[in-house]
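MODEL INPUT / OUTPUT PAIR
PAIR INDEX: 1
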Amino acid sequence: MKIFLSTCLFLAILSEVTAETCKVKKLNDSDSKGTCETSEGGSCFFRVIGRRFNGSAKLETEMGCTTDCTSGNYIFTSGKDHFLRDIRFCCHAKDCYKKFFQLQQPKLNGQECPTCFPSFSKACKGSETIKCYDDQTQCIEFVLDHDNSTIPEKDFHGCASPTFCAMAKNSMHFYAFSGTITKARCSDTLPLLEQLNFEG
């Protein structure tokens, strides 16, 4: 009986110890807004969204508590200084910032993909390629249907991580693009731009 009670007491203490206090910050907030307590089996999470398109750069962070944390790198590059990085990781309260500052500079991985800049839309021609970085092992092309219906669809081509490709193929709304990704096609290699046939 004593062993049973001791075990129950130990588990009760352990469940209290495993709860963590995480900082809370929404993507559009400039600073963190208080804290939250993780539930059993939960953890803190930290998300970094960095993007640069057409000379405009933006970096946003989000953090908080979650019960179902999945780390992942959703990365897309369409040319020099044209990129999107949505990096999410699970962390303990004390090491969330540490992981953020440990994010390394991108490294070339040997993959190359055809590219086209959105400003050229479907009129884009040529055989320019870009070099891919880190886990961007897939070439991708997709159409962005913008939230604002007055903005025309844009075509994107470039390098992508497998997680970005999987997300894009599900035609999901993507916050960082302010629109829904459609007609996504990914492969280890894609034909050069002059060989592509755009549909509808």
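PAIR INDEX: 2
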Amino acid sequence: MRPMPWRGRTKFCISNIRRPKACRAGRPREMTAKRLALAAVCAWLVAGAPAGGAKAAEPLAQAVPCLPCHSVAGMLKKPKVPSILGQDTKYLIHQITAFQRQFAPNSSSFLRLERKHPVMSQEAPKVEHEDIALVAEYFASQACVNAWQLDGNRTAPLPNPLLANRCFLCHGQGGRTTHAFVPSLAGQRQEYLRVQLVAFRDSMAEGPSRPGRYRAHRMMTRQGEKLTDAQIDELSAYFSSQRCR
């Protein structure tokens, strides 16, 4: 692949990693350490992961603030952090954008969401707009990790069918979704799932001024407000016990 002309009136776009294309000519940009690192990961994604793929992720670790929490090592220390490995690229782009803007505008009201988090609301804006797709593509390309790989084997019964089917409708049977903008729940940490369901429920009652985590979504807020603490525990235990793929 011909090297990209980084200097001069550069025509380069990383918003579509699988099909790099020319973008509008813009003013010259300095190749910072961050951009060099992101470019290295971009090349790795286009070429395919080489042997020792874990080593290939190191440039990204230096470039964005994601891996300290969202790598396997990070998740081992933080049970309230989601596993974003293997999630759909479009879903990840949508979430990063929501944290950056406090909401993610979209032509479809179903996709509109608002998010606030004491850490993510500070860290997400550090990812430059043109790099969001690259970061999302990197995490989407990784193999998902099951909660039992981090916490040990756990089993949980299927919740009440009426309750479970409300989740399966969008999140897929067993929590393995087929919808691009909907996250897979299977294999997520139980504590993370519990915290998110509580956030959906309580954000409805308290509004955007809710301290700490605030999460609002047209569908999920309505579903969350109906849940009791016992149902939240039941659902989070079940989806945590499922295999992500």
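PAIR 2 NOTE: The longest strand covers residues 113-116.
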